[in-house]
């Protein structure tokens, strides 16, 4: 579509240019050949032309409010502004100097251009042979496309007559200020090293500028000099650490061949005590093949990430999504209380092995899929309805086992668990705990996983294992501390009732997964999974009947049970693909708009502060926050009082744009809550904690508004 738009626009430009040439030459002063929407004029920097120097001339384009013109690479659509010079002998025009562009969303497209006035500078070399005292006339044909809802190609014939003098003075203060502003917008040579690397689907540019603060960086983007290098319409992810800034852009779907060199502009805003400072650096560098060649992460960074991962895994035990499986851990502790300390230690090691095993599998799968170009994050597996249904099968089976429908091994009250089956059960408890916990992101854990996904596979593996070790650490410590184990109640007759009671958290978790599945595939698509659960229950009952000795031919019940299980597994293939709208867009009388970077910028540009909620139906922490805080009357009153716009992003079924947004905050999973001031108010976004409180959210909203109010006071700046 981009090529069609550009070819069509070029046709109209050509037709308009032919018409302009047929109408005759322009006037002797700066003029246009026909009325245009854009006011165009040539402005010299000095009042005269001095031999042996460079004369700078500005082409100033002033479109009406709401209209824009284009950069040298217009992005998804449009045509670059062009100026053709006709100069007297002794004057030679150089290439036009382009100021940094902006990303301007237009429907599904993103163009690179200038919203409002554009000042394009051209250097003109003046020969030393030029004779002073004679005037020189500079003529130019300027062509541009101006767009709002409609795109219009326009053209102007411009002339500028200046005397040739042995000295040249600034034109006036207005022109001096104009050129100063224009030069401040030109890309500079970076004082810091700039590197670039590519994968099959992305290109990354890194500015190795130490000391950057993520909270002070905004509007970071890379603008390629050539068309087709990146997908202009896709959002770009931003990562800021102690060593610098990295911007990652997606390659076009049809362009998978590696590039050798990258040219363009890396632009961003950096807030300081006086407000936002606009930065732009010219990029013209070779592209490395591997992300690890960026070389920005030190051993200290990795050590810090390992510590954060360990702490995050430890806190993960307290997250709402892990509460159901804590019951299994508690059951295991009670069983082991009467056993020999060495047995308890082996159980502790078994459950730790199960946790580390699952984290290794999950982390390896994430790294492999991202290396293949997939845009995924932590908890990606539950974006698949098939995985959600299979997890429901597992939890339902565990619940039936705890209810006594069938036995895996035998448990004698007051006795001990058979060693082989007991250790396998502990291993499985670790796997199950990680399976259910995997959609959640605990504090500290998000930053660690965000770094892991940018590192070589062996570093990523260490970080994932550190999260697993943190999650298993409480159980491991109890297992190796006999004195703590002896504080637990002694086994007795109550243990059988306790075991059966533990089934109900499993059934509750199964209900939650069935609800998630209903959000993903609808009520009709849920039928196959419910039939599968029925078959799982029938199979468990058959096994229990055989174990109770009611049927002498055990092979009959086992055969039927096996057939039922295989049929249930086969039904997973009939699970429909996920649909849209899996999370609520309305709660407590508040309507949440659908999140997109374009909608976010549109609301902020309209003068509205915005709250962004990135959530998923399978994220229990998200659901708890929604039920206890975001659906409360206190939150609704705070939103209305501060005229806060609300945007909610649904990551239930996966969304590459949302994944890149999460990565821009160094997050690998949900939830993510961000408060933004309006653009005209300035200030930086506020990232809220992953576990919300009514008081904390209200205070953050008030703090955002008070910071804006302070900025608006005369003589004060944020």
Q: What can you tell me about this protein's structure?
A:
Helices cover 42% and strands 22% of the residues. The chain is α+β, with helices and mostly antiparallel strands and 718 residues long. The strands form seven sheets. Strands 20-22-21-23-24 form a five-stranded mixed beta sheet, with helices on both faces. Strands 1-2-8-5 form a four-stranded antiparallel beta sheet. Helix 4 (323-336) packs across helix 12. The chain is elongated and about 115 Å long.
Structural class: alpha+beta
Mean pLDDT over the residues: 78
The strands making up the biggest β-sheet line up spatially as 20-22-21-23-24
Largest sheet: 5 strands, mixed
Strand coverage percent: 15-25%
Which key terms come to mind for this protein?
18 helices, disordered N terminus, 718 residues, 5-stranded mixed beta sheet, 4 domains, Immunoglobulin-like, 4-stranded antiparallel beta sheet, 24 strands
Quick description:
With about 725 residues, this protein is of the alpha+beta class. It is elongated.
Can you lay out the helices and strands and say which pair or pack?
Layout: H1 2-22, E1 39-44, E2 54-62, E3 68-75, E4 82-86, E5 91-93, E6 102-106, E7 109-115, E8 118-126, E9 135-147, E10 151-163, H2 173-184, E11 194-198, E12 202-207, E13 217-224, E14 237-241, E15 244-250, E16 261-272, E17 275-286, H3 299-316, H4 323-336, H5 341-371, H6 385-402, H7 419-437, H8 445-452, H9 457-479, H10 482-486, H11 494-501, H12 503-548, H13 554-571, E18 586-587, E19 590-591, E20 593-594, H14 597-605, E21 610-615, H15 620-630, H16 633-641, E22 645-650, H17 656-664, E23 672-676, E24 686-687, H18 694-712
Helix pairs in contact: 3-8, 3-9, 4-7, 4-12, 5-7, 5-9, 6-12, 8-9, 12-13, 16-18
């Amino acid at each position: 579509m981009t090529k069609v738009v550009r070819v069509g626009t070029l046709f109209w430009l050509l037709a308009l240019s032919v018409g302009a040439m047929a109408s005759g030459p322009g006037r002797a002063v700066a003029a246009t050949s026909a009325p245009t929407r854009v006011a165009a004029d040539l402005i010299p920097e000095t009042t005269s032309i001095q031999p042996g120097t460079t004369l700078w001339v500005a082409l100033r384009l002033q479109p009406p409010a709401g209209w824009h013109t284009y950069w040298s690479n217009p992005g998804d659509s449009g045509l670059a502004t062009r100026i053709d010079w006709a100069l007297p002998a002794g004057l030679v025009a150089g290439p036009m100097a382009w100021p940094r562009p902006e990303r301007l969303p237009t429907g599904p497209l993103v163009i690179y251009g200038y919203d409002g006035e554009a000042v394009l500078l051209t250097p003109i070399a003046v020969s030393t042979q030029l004779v002073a005292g004679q005037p020189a006339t500079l003529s130019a044909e300027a062509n541009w496309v101006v767009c709002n809802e409609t795109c219009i190609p326009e053209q102007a014939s411009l002339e500028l007559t200046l005397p040739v003098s042995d000295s040249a003075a600034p034109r006036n203060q207005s022109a001096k200020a104009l050129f100063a502003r224009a030069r401040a917008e030109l890309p500079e040579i970076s004082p810091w090293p700039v590197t670039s690397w590519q994968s099959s689907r992305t290109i990354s540019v890194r500015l190795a500028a130490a000391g950057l603060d993520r909270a002070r960086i905004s509007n970071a983007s890379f603008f390629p000099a050539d068309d087709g290098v990146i997908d202009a319409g896709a959002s770009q992810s931003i990562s800021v650490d102690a060593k610098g800034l990295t911007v990652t852009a997606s390659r076009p779907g049809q362009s998978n061949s590696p590039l050798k060199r990258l040219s363009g502009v890396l632009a961003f805003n950096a807030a300081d005590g006086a407000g936002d400072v606009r930065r732009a650096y010219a990029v013209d560098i070779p592209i490395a093949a591997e992300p690890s060649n960026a070389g920005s992460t030190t051993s200290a960074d990795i050590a810090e990430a390992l510590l954060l991962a360990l702490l995050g895994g430890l806190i993960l035990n307290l997250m709402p999504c892990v509460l159901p499986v804590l019951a299994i851990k508690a059951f295991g502790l009670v069983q082991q209380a009467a056993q020999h300390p060495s047995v308890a230690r082996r159980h502790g090691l078994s459950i730790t092995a199960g946790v580390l095993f699952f984290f290794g599998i999950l982390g390896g799968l994430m790294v492999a899929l991202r290396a293949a170009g997939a845009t995924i994050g932590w908890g990606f597996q539950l974006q698949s309805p098939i995985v959600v249904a299979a997890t429901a099968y597992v939890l339902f089976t565990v619940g039936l086992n705890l209810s006594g429908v069938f036995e895996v091994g035998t448990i004698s009250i007051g006795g001990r668990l058979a060693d082989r089956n007991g250790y396998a059960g502990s291993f499985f408890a670790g796997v199950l705990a990680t399976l259910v916990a995997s959609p959640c992101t605990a504090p500290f854990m998000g930053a660690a996983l965000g770094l892991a996904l940018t590192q070589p596979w062996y570093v990523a593996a260490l970080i994932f294992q550190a999260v697993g070790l943190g999650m298993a650490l409480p159980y491991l410590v109890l297992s190796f501390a006999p004195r703590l184990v002896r504080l637990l109640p002694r086994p007795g007759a109550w243990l059988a009732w306790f075991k059966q009671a533990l089934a109900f958290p499993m059934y509750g978790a199964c209900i939650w997964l069935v609800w998630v599945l209903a959000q993903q595939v609808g009520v009709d698509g849920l039928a196959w999974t419910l039939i599968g659960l029925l078959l799982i229950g029938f199979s468990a009952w058959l096994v229990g009947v055989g174990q109770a000795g009611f049927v002498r031919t055990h092979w009959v019940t086992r055969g039927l049970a096996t057939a039922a299980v295989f049929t249930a597994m086969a039904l997973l293939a009939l699970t429909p693909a996920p649909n849209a709208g899996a999370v609520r867009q309305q709660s407590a009388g508040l309507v949440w708009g659908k999140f997109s970077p374009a909608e976010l910028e549109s609301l902020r540009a309209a003068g509205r502060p915005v709250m962004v909620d990135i959530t998923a139906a399978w994220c229990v922490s998200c659901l708890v926050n929604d039920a206890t805080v975001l659906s409360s009357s206190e939150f609704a009153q705070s939103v209305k009082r501060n005229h806060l716009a609300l945007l909610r992003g649904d990551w239930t079924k996966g969304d590459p744009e949302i994944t890149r947004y999460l990565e821009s905050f160094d997050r690998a999973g949900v939830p993510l809550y961000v408060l933004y001031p309006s653009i005209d108010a300035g200030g930086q976004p506020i990232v809220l904690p992953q576990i919300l409180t009514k008081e904390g959210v209200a205070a953050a909203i008030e703090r955002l508004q008070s910071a804006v109010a302070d900025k608006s006071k005369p003589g004060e700046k944020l």
